[in-house]
Every structure is written in C-alpha cells, then in structure tokens.
C-alpha cells in the first residue's frame, strides 16, 4: 500500500511541490503526469526510501514524511503524482484511483487570457479518507463552530475515498473528484485549442493569482464550497470588467473558513439556530450567492440516485449570442437525450414567476432582486423540475418543494459578464451534443472578448 497528499494543492512554475508519502514498501518513486488534452508523463523521480506511517483522523494533519520535487518549467495545468512501488511500477495511471495518487496544480504566470479554477475545497468536503467528511461522521469544530476536515490527508480530487452515491450514468469515477467533471471539460477545452492558466480555489483565497491579468475565469462541475476571500476575489474581478463562466451548479452554496495556516477547512451546516455558513440565509452569511452567479441551488434542485426525469433545457431567447450556430429556436429543447441528461444531478435556478407548458415561455419573478438576482440577469434557457426530484430546497418564500423550481441558464453584466449553465453535468455532455459544445465555444469565445471568432 502506498498513499500520499500534497502539502499545498498548487505550486508555482519553477518552484517545488512537497508530497507527503507513506508506504509499507521498501522504496517508491513518483511519476508526474499533466492532465489536459491527453495524459502525459512529464517527469519521474529516482527511487526513494519508503517509510510506513499510520493513518490519522479526517480532521487532523497526517504529518507523513515529506519529499520535495522541482516543478522546473512545467506548463501550467493539473498534475497527478502517481506513487509507484516495485510491484506497481508498470501500472497505468487511473484518474479514478483511490490510492497511490495525489493531485496538484502548477499555477500560471498570468500571461494567458483564460484562467481555469479547480474546486479543491469541494473535493475535500466529500473526501472520506480518515473516516469522516462534511457528510459522514463530520468531525466537530468549536471555534469557528461547525465541522472540520483536513486538507493534509490523502484524497481531495484523487487518491482517497469519496462520500456519495455512484453516478447512475457514469460509475467509472466518483462524483466530487477531478475525474468526473473537471477532467472531461479540460480535455475538451485543450483539444478545442484553448490555452489556459490553471489555479485552485485556495490560490484565490491566498491571493496568489493575479486575476486582473486574465479576461475569463472558468469554473466547472461542482464548485460548492467557497471562503469569503475566494468570493471577494471573483466579485472584485467582475467589478473590474473581468468575465466568469460557471459551467456547473450548486455553486457557492456553503461558506468555509480556512484555518490552521491553510491546513483545514470548517463549515457550519446546521444547528438550533440554522446553518451559520449557508451563503443566502439571514441566519448564515446573509449574502445570497445569486448576487455573484446569477442563480442558486435553492431555486433548482438535486436528483442523486438512479435515472432522472428531465425534458432538457427549453430555449427562451434564441437571438442571444450563446445560441449562435446551434440552430436552436425559442421553445426548442436540448439535452434530454444525452447520457447523463444535461439537467442534473444538481442544478441551480433563478426565482421564476411562471413557466407556460403550452408556449414553453418562462418569466422571472418580479421581486427576483430580493433573492439577490442581478437586475441585468437574462433568462436564456429553463428546465422546470418535477416533484420527483430528490430535493427541491427551501428558500426565502417557501418550504422545501414549494413553488416553481427550475434549472436556469442565464447571464448578466455588471462591468464584467457572468454566464452560468446551472447544471453540474454539463461537462459530461460536451462530446455527445454538438449544441452543448457550440454553446460552450460561444461562451468562451465571447467572454475572451473576441480573441477567437465566435460567429
């Protein structure tokens, strides 16, 4: 057995990455892979002495032996350190590995217009290594109050156990891991010819990324857990004419507190006085996520197990630039026949007044602004959720299941432009539906401010 984790989830180009490794083998080596359009081995260490070390709890720093490696001139991107022993030296890398691998990012230098952010906090929120996570036997924190998980343990994108039901449509990788949503999107992005810098959400928290040097920030899949500094950085970027594309959902649902020198995170998700770290609640952060993303999970919903029922997205404004070249017209549906269906497994929405099943036209609630919806928000496509969905959350003006819940694709401009597709499974349909791929290209091209031809 061999396992490991990075001391920090990112490194600068030309710097060093520190990995903490424990193994019962007498020696091991590390093979480094960059995961982009293809998976490419970029370097390999010499044999190193193996040291056995005990596992620890989910909320503690495991303090395994540390090994430092030069990053040299590696291109910015997502990297996997594959941990090899004599018995496994010829084993191929699996992005779904539950041991013998660790994930990290080599940050860019701010000279590319496109910046891709990895949701490492969400990976760790669901990382069950050590016997707990935010969803299973959550370790308690007294100050700040809530549940606490360590970032210095195996897992966090790859190489550990992950909480949650298997994806009915794709059980080859666990949800809440790099392989499930981010890797397919990055593969598409780089094969389409886009050149990006990469970072993690903790790089935004620590101020290590010069956002102002980029034109477009992209977030994909399930980006659920945000600290206040992460959100502050993105909102300041938009206010200074930066653009953001959220190709995911359940975005910024929970606030986290980064503690102990960046080695752990805490989140308060419930108690006698409510969830103190839910962004939208008056008893929580009282800062609706809609104000940043345009939408919220509380207006959408989740379908976690088994095949789900959805008729796909219905187009609401076919003249919008996002639909250029798709052939879609108002009232047309798309994304119902992909595998998985485009809408779900979790999706975000805007507060809607109505959806007419005859005309297939939706309208925003007149008082949508009280939920944080930006005044310039445009409805582009909607997918009403049926009562069959596992969760239709409570919100300001209704209990769970009340009112109209619908996935809502849209955008708004507040100096910069923010676009959201409002569904976690967008990345998995890119290779299946040419219209989904064309919308993605349109969004990236447009928000890169015409750096490529979007016509």
- Secondary structure class reads mainly beta
The whole-angstrom Rg is 21 Å
Give the C-level CATH assignment of the largest domain.
Alpha Beta
**Cα-to-Cα separation, first versus last residue:** 53 Å
**Helix fraction by DSSP (H/I, runs of at least 4):** 10-25%
Number of helices: 7
Q: What share of the residues does DSSP label as strand, in percent?
A: 25-35%
How many separate domains? 2
- Major sheet characteristics: 9 strands, mixed
What is the CATH architecture assignment of the largest domain? 3-Layer(aba) Sandwich
Count every beta strand, where a strand is a DSSP E run of 2 or more residues: 27
Strand order of the largest sheet: 13-10-14-16-27-26-25-20-21
The residue ranges in which pLDDT falls below 50 over 5 or more consecutive positions are 451-455
